[in-house]
Amino acid sequence: MGGSPPDTVTTADRLQAGVLVSKLSLGASVEHDKTEDLTNVARAQAMIGGATLAYPLTRRVSTNLTYNVRHAWSDVPASDQITSDTTLGLNWMVVAPNGQRPGMSLGLDGSYHSCRDKLADSSSFGAVCVNSYQAFVRMSVSWMPSF
Fold it and tell me: How far is the C-alpha of 87 from the C-alpha of 45, rounded, in Å?
């Protein structure tokens, strides 16, 4: 039979705000996460920040831009990484939902993920971070239920 699971305490604090200026939607958030492993006397923390912009170009076409950054570190095992994600989206409502008739939307999203391992230079195994680009084509079907 194995040992007991570690005794941990996790605390997460988040502050988020959003505002609509004319047609432009602005949002921002900040978060702090901390996990303490009381059994192994270790601690991991992360600070996360984000910003979002959304703007309708027409009644059926809208855009959005999102940026998130995360700095995570721990003492056992030693780690210290900074990651960021930037996403740009274009959405088109082809058919608006109406009563029981479903609607259809198409979207195109592009994102860039970057990562920097602050301890990679002192590590013998090299960086564990990977920078990447991604593109997504979306189709969604939705309807407005009536009760």
Answer: 25
